[in-house]
Amino acid sequence: MSIWDRAKAKVEEMVGRAEEVYGESHGDAAAKVHGEAHRLEGEAEEEAALRDEAVGHDPDDGAAPVR
């Protein structure tokens, strides 16, 4: 994933957190749950991007040479 994908995931996480806070402050359970879902989705996408980058830069990718 590129830096843009990570940025998109971070924005989605922040928008979800904002919606979650709105739902908490206004007593809107649907907005709170919807915001929490966005936040968790953004966190998962960001973690996947970081994991993909770490695997992509790891010189030992687990493929051992055949003897």
Q: Your description of this structure?
A:
- The protein has 67 residues and is mainly α.
- Helix content is 79%, strand content 0%.
- α1 (3-26) runs antiparallel to α2 (29-57).
- The chain is elongated and about 65 Å long.
- The protein starts with a helix and ends in a 10-residue tail after the last helix.
SSE sequence, one letter per element: HH
DSSP strand tally: 0
| Unreliable sequence segments | none
Helical percentage: over 70%
Q: What is the overall pLDDT average?
A: 84
Strand content: under 5%
Number of helices: 2
Overall shape: it is elongated
Distance between the termini: 34 Å
**What class, by secondary structure content?**
mainly alpha
Radius of gyration: 17 Å
Major sheet summary line: none
Q: What is the compact description of this entry?
A:
With 67 residues, the protein is mostly helical. The protein has 2 helices and no strands. The longest helix is centred in the middle third of the chain and has 29 residues, at 29-57.
